[in-house]
């Protein structure tokens, strides 16, 4: 029997910083504060199909440090990557985009956030490892609940 089907492959074409911004709205007086700020970290991932098995995935991390209502600093990085998928079954594409790609991008986003906060005059913010698989499964459960389905009935698209 002739084997015409190639094995599935997944690869990184390019890793890059799509967006990087830092704001220190109350500088220089904010540097005189001695209290430790409250730090909030928000994550967002977005994937765009560029055609022919090529996807652009952006992991956006927003770090906001506040003292009460006063913003100490705000750092946002959009760490991106271009990924190629060849012969990957359609039902496996979304998990790769939602789990594998952000796992690859996260260390680069961590470095960019840490470097930006240090360059702004603050102690580095070190992102802890993120379980993107758990986030993805939680999102599937939320979608299933919203549709009145059992979580195991959620199709991966």
User: Can you identify the CATH class?
Assistant: Alpha Beta
Give me the secondary-structure category: alpha+beta
Strand content: 35-45%
CATH-level-4 superfamily name: SecB-like
Write the CATH architecture name.
Roll
The tally of helices reads 2
Shape: elongated
What is the helical fraction, as a range of percent? 25-40%
Number of DSSP E strands: 4
Sketch the topology as an H/E string, one letter per element. EEEEHH
Order of adjacent strands in the largest pleated sheet: 1-4-3-2
Give me the CATH fold name.
Bacterial Protein-export protein SecB
How would you characterize the overall build of this protein?
The chain is of the alpha+beta class and 157 residues long. The protein has a single domain (9-149), classed as Bacterial Protein-export protein SecB (Roll), CATH 3.10.420. The chain is built from two helices and four strands. It has helices at residues 90-119, 132-146; strands spanning 9-23, 38-51, 54-67, 70-86. It has a four-stranded antiparallel β-sheet with strand order 1-4-3-2. The radius of gyration is 20 Å and the shape is elongated. The two termini are 31 Å apart. The model is unreliable at 152-157 (pLDDT under 50).
């Amino acid at each position: 029997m002739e084997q015409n089907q190639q094995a599935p492959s997944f690869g990184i074409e390019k890793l890059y910083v799509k967006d990087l911004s830092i704001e220190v709205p109350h500088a220089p007086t904010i540097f005189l504060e001695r209290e430790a700020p409250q730090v909030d970290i928000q994550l967002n991932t977005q994937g765009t199909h560029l055609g022919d098995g090529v996807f652009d995935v952006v992991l956006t991390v927003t770090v906001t440090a506040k003292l009460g209502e006063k913003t100490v600093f705000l750092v946002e990085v959009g760490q991106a990557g271009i990924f190629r998928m060849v012969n990957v079954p359609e039902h496996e594409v979304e998990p790769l985009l939602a789990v594998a790609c952000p796992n690859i991008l996260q260390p680069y986003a961590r470095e960019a956030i840490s470097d930006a906060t240090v360059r702004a005059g603050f102690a580095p913010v070190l992102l802890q490892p993120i379980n993107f698989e758990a986030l993805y499964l939680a999102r599937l459960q939320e979608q299933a609940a919203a549709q009145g389905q059992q979580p195991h009935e959620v199709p991966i698209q």
